[in-house]
Design brief:
This protein is α/β, with parallel strands linked by helices. Helix content is 43%, strand content 19%.
Length: 330
């Protein structure tokens, strides 16, 4: 059963950005924001969350006349940064900008995170998604996913694949692909996407699932080969790149999103203020242009829609982890 395809179609078919009309009494009475804001990115610099987060911080900080200081706080597949925000003062001046890994995935592994993302964090909005692709080192003797699978079947566990960390979404996606293809590769976990890409370029690993934004220049130079997109249709920037289905495997339709979160006790009007501002930002022509230039999709979901999506994802990831027998034990 393809958990992602059917559920995502139902979800996206029912999501609409509704008009927001919360009471902004706290934000208005205190002229929020009245001082600089800290945006915690739970992964190293140069990855997707870092790129989108810094772009949003720059535009909103200029608009509000207050600096939004971006701080990378990597470690434990995003859990260190997430836990920091959970424990931060719930005054709206510290937020988390994160992909799914520490939010909807980490809870399904042992040991459990030191926080409960569903209880301890409140989402303001989803802001942007990033298409992912399968890439291999340019020296690997395969030009299609089918050829790579055939090569891997001849050498079980002798080919290495990189991940941005144990339990990361791209780790799970890789394992799903291997299960579907009937192949076994050896995992080499890195501390973030950028080191994983460097490992692939250096030949330490031969296979990687990664965001388009992180590898597009290396694909262009020929140092890396793109084998397939994880999207359900071909990418506009790579019209010749087949989907998983076109490569002989079923599509996953997995959304690699980025979202803004606050400590759960943060006043509702402040969270609502951010929700309104982030949704407006996603519609801004300058933001959209820059996002598309970097291969990101400037989509936005409000807090309620985002919460519904994450609840579905939690079930999906749990099923995938059990089905593919994924472990994060070293």
């Amino acid at each position: 059963m393809d958990y992602f395809s059917s559920t995502r179609r139902r979800l996206l078919g029912g999501i609409a950005l509704s008009a927001l009309s919360p009471s902004f009494s706290h934000a208005q009475n205190n002229k929020y924001p009245s001082k600089s804001i800290r945006m915690i990115l739970p992964f190293p610099a140069a990855g997707g969350p870092d790129t989108v987060g810094r772009l949003a911080a720059s535009i909103l900080g200029t608009k509000w006349g207050q600096q939004i200081v971006v701080e990378n706080m990597p470690g434990a597949s995003g859990q260190i940064g997430a836990n920091y925000v959970v424990k931060a003062p719930a005054d709206g001046y510290t937020l988390l900008f994160s992909p799914p890994t520490p939010i909807t995935i980490a809870e399904h592994f042992e040991p459990k995170p030191p926080y409960d993302a569903n209880r301890d964090l409140i989402p303001a909005a989803l802001l942007g998604r990033n298409p992912a692709v399968i890439v291999i080192n340019g020296n690997v003797k395969a030009n299609t996913l089918g050829e790579f699978i055939a090569l891997a079947k001849k050498e079980p566990n002798k080919i290495f694949y990189g991940t941005p960390g144990l339990g990361h979404a791209f780790h799970l996606i890789s394992e799903i692909i291997f299960t579907k293809a009937g192949i076994q590769l050896t995992n080499v976990p890195y501390q973030g996407s950028s080191p994983a890409v460097m490992g692939l370029l250096g030949g330490d690993v031969q296979f990687l699932v990664q965001s388009v934004e992180s590898v597009k220049e290396h694909i262009k130079s020929g140092k890396l080969k793109a084998l397939a997109t994880l999207e359900s249709s071909r990418l506009e920037a790579y019209p010749d790149l087949p989907t998983l289905a076109e490569s002989g495997l079923s599509n996953l339709d997995i959304m690699n999103w980025y979202g803004a979160f606050f400590s759960a006790k943060t006043p509702a009007d402040i969270v609502g203020f951010w929700e309104k501002e982030l949704i407006a930002l996603a519609k801004d022509a300058t933001f959209q242009k820059k996002m598309k230039e970097m291969s990101f999709d400037p989509v936005a979901y409000g807090s309620q829609e985002f919460s519904k999506m994450m609840n579905l994802e939690r079930t999906q990831w749990s099923n995938v982890i059990k089905t593919a027998h994924v472990s994060i034990k070293k």
